[in-house]
Amino acid sequence: MQLDFFPSKSLTLYLGKLFIARILAVLIMLVLVLMMLDLLSKSGDILAVEGNGQGELLTYASLRIPQLVQRFVPYSVLLATIITLVTLNQNSEVIAMKAAGLSAHQVLAPLLLTAGLVSAVNFAFNERVVTRATATLKAWEGAEYGAVPQESNVRSNVYLTDGEGILTATSITGAGDQLRMTGVTWYERGQGGMIRQQLRAERATFVNPGWQLENATRFDVRSADTTTVERVVVGKQLTPAQIELEAVDPDAQGFFELSDSIAAYEAAGRRTGELRAKWWHKLSGPLSAFLMPLLGAVAAFGLARSGQLFLRAIIGMALGFAYFVVDNAALAMGSFGGYPPFLAAWAPFFLFLLVGETVLIRTEE
């Protein structure tokens, strides 16, 4: 048995190229299928807006595809692992490599290296592309597929409380005293939390203190009367700094930007468990692609003619998909405070790392 972790340079390049080609093929297939299904469900809402057409459908696709790519890269690595290893097993290439003195870990080393590079690229892609596309898409959805917001710091579907009052906005743009709200609704509550009146306006601006609604429609719950108010100030205790904290969306912020948001939350004495779990998952999520060759490795070994190759492929696929189920469940528990943030993000990764290593060592080493 060789002492080097990697096999020869030629074999490493051969397996790496074979693996990356299958990853790209599976990823493109998944993204195209899912994008078509997504367009079928969303095209009616997009085209319902006057003036929208093919260009807006392409815009939606350009914003949605980065999300699909980032989400399904680990799935693609898992399926590509199964396909690659089953093919190598059927062609007796795995038997030839083991006959040459390579261990199971050495056979998998080029795949693990490739998956690690994919994880790094996926992290960078999420930081530079996915977060911006997510922020723009959420703001566009908040505007019900109207004009695409041009600002880079758009936040959508914001819910704020000011004592007994509630202020909601479909989108917020700008920063500091230049914050602007659109699609604004103010609910004024009385004793017992019952809503007494509702104010709706197209926009609101900060007037220090409070937020000024222009040409607002007032609905009085008791009298059921509707009137128009030219100007009215609400939410006098809501400052731009408070709103910027409330409007933090971890999916629309990069790793380092989210770090600053968490620090601001902690300085304000706010709960940061959900944000910190998402912050850790920005590392563990892309790194899950590195885990997939290990979980799918069971498909590489065993004689193809034994009739158990299909069963081994199913076991490898089941291990991989079990990881995604446990990972999503742990992240949800972390968001609700059931698990510590670090444990919620990293426990599934290390658990299945141990499971994969145990299966590989007990069966092949």
Automatic annotation (TrEMBL):
Record has Transmembrane helix as a keyword: yes
NCBIfam families to which the protein is assigned, alphabetical: LptG_lptG
Bilayer topology annotation: Multi-pass membrane protein
UniProt keyword list: Cell membrane, Membrane, Transmembrane, Transmembrane helix
Subcellular location: Cell membrane
Transmembrane regions: 20-40, 72-88, 108-125, 283-303, 309-326, 338-361
Predominant subcellular localization, coarse grouping: membrane
Protein name: LPS export ABC transporter permease LptG
